[in-house]
Amino acid sequence: MQDHVTPRRVVILGGGFAGLFAARALRHSPVAVTVVDRQAHHLFQPLLYQCSSGILSEGQIAQPLRKVLRRHHNVDCVLADATDVDVKAQLVHARRPDGGTLELPYDDLIVAVGMRQSYFGHDEFAAYAPGMKTLDDALDIRRRIYRAFEMAETAEDDDERRRWLTFALVGGGPTGVELAGQIREIAGHTLDREFRTIDAEAARVLLFEGSDEVLGAFGPALARRAARTLRSLGVELHMGTIVTDVDADGVSVRDRNGAVSRFAARTVLWTAGVEAPPIAGALARATGVEQDRAGRIPVEPDLTLAGHPEIRVTGDVMSLNRLPGLAEVAMQSGAYAGRALRHAVEGRTKRPKPFKYRDLGSAAYICRGRAVVKVGRLHLSGVLGWFVWLFIHLAFLTGFRSRLGAVLSWAVTFATSSRRERAFLSSKGGPPPGAGESR
Amino acid sequence: MQDHVTPRRVVILGGGFAGLFAARALRHSPVAVTVVDRQAHHLFQPLLYQCSSGILSEGQIAQPLRKVLRRHHNVDCVLADATDVDVKAQLVHARRPDGGTLELPYDDLIVAVGMRQSYFGHDEFAAYAPGMKTLDDALDIRRRIYRAFEMAETAEDDDERRRWLTFALVGGGPTGVELAGQIREIAGHTLDREFRTIDAEAARVLLFEGSDEVLGAFGPALARRAARTLRSLGVELHMGTIVTDVDADGVSVRDRNGAVSRFAARTVLWTAGVEAPPIAGALARATGVEQDRAGRIPVEPDLTLAGHPEIRVTGDVMSLNRLPGLAEVAMQSGAYAGRALRHAVEGRTKRPKPFKYRDLGSAAYICRGRAVVKVGRLHLSGVLGWFVWLFIHLAFLTGFRSRLGAVLSWAVTFATSSRRERAFLSSKGGPPPGAGESR
What we know:
By secondary structure, the first copy, chain A, is of the alpha/beta class.
């Protein structure tokens, strides 16, 4: 890198898995990288539910982006929310937390903004049923879970007590399943002998899922086993049901036959769907590409935008061959985009091979000693699945200290059911309802 | 304890050091204890500043009250805010977090509600200058400290950059001194080589104190040494100054000669004073006792209220012989009140000996390897003081796991300056400005 030449400017929107892996792939390239994120931390999202359930602290799953990238001397991090892209002027417009604006010129743009929680057009549900995408969400959910038991203890009558002891989870994907397992474990083990009036163990956990199975992505055999494990934990599964209304008192659901029922529950958590953040729409309008139904942006086989070889889209917000929104896809697509850009900078003229996702498998934790894992044709569940889950998450968790901390926290929680991070804030701790989050 | 006799009902207001030690002293008494607190956790307040500075997590300094008291089978915990005391009917009125009300009848009342931050009649300062009394406060301050450096990095001009890199601390007691040391350490060590535009090390920390010295309670010799250590850390001490105004841009101060100056600072933290929460005023009105200037309640030598032998006042909110608001005073007075009550229940008719505070010493941490400690006539500072500080805090921190966790966190932070808990929330995370906190 020669000092007297202005290096090629690369702007990466988003510091999640895709953005981080893209920045890392550019480490030894003579480019000036700017990572823009509305959070100052990189979040290890697959363990966010353990932060909300009191096993891990915020710092164990979220590290400052600029600390993670400290030794990448060509990378700067900017805490701002990208609001628009001017593709003609090659300029990203962003808003700082204090309302000030920034203009970030780029020669190359890597979009890795992720997806946010979707309420399928019912953003008014958000006030009653937080999603699980950010640290703010996780602390909000932690507060709701533990406070519900406190409120039940001093409830005025049995009806009210039952409402506080009923937890409704919307969505039967990994996050919904993990949360369901966590709440049943908290009720049955963590809170053991702490309450004088209520029987915490009697807490009901209802899981609503529109399809016929939980963890459908893991295939029918593992889905069946997951359902069995959940039922044995005491989770009440309501398959084939659509949630039609959410308020402070509970949820209304409609089943396949159109029958509507009402479930009283003071705590409702939402993990049912995702949608692209507004910046994806802005980019689509600026480039003329058409987003898919959830707002994802279709890309060419090399992850560039049609007609815009200088713009690459990676991670959850990328639409390509119906790839799922998994951490692994985000890492691989981010690394691919960074590498492709590095090759271009190095002057390689050969067209890069199309991006190909290598499915290394997926895993979902259900409860202590129970997880389901799918690696190619290998399907694991139960204790063996759980060990593999443990290994995978340790391998990918960022930083040695986080790994050590997580192992210690898991060891104590698995041995004693005690959870260290149960203290919750008085205030909501989450963003105002309906506020967009583009992680 | 006979089942067919209704046990004597003891209500303890507050689950801080005083309330916790009172409940513990009643463990083997045939009484029914109810601990009422507006937080569900017991907070180890002396380390709160380490939570705000990113060394410790919330769970390392705050444990669920009902978990701490789990094996005290005669204790129940209630998450509610005591709003009034009906001393004739012997009834505490309280408000649950959802707005519902509770009535708690008592035979004996132990008041241990602590003190909250005081802005000396300027509650409007709270929005710009959070205090440091609760977990919400600590996370709010964590966000303000780390976000300030992020904002400086993308500031529009040098003036704005300087404002973001200036931290004004109001109050030169232990909390103010500890925070000043923490911010200088973060600037000079923790953030080392993470920023590309700003020089984090150049961050200014201004400490404003109305008296002539910091840590005045430690005596002139230690106060001088503390001031020297702070100056060598780069903290700018402004002694003999009163803060007259606080807004989003900084503080206005007046010195002894009446000269007014203005300091631009985007981050202002307030540790200058305390006042009693509203429930103390309600109790004073109900019993006819007169609060002191800060709202503390004067007590008899046995900690009862004049004319109300069934009401005992303990901890920071108790006014007796000008005892300072220290954790140690709270622990001893709470334990005394619990013991006196136990003796009364056991039918001892002998008047208890007056409460006598045994000064076991006090300690304040300044920075890595530097603390001041005063134990009777023994005055320590520097590394030796720091070792004694370490020992004291480990001895008193509640729970084995918290101790182990704190030792590990301290070891890493002291060795590498790295702080694990740097992730901050997007939202304020604190209570709305002016909202009362009575911990």
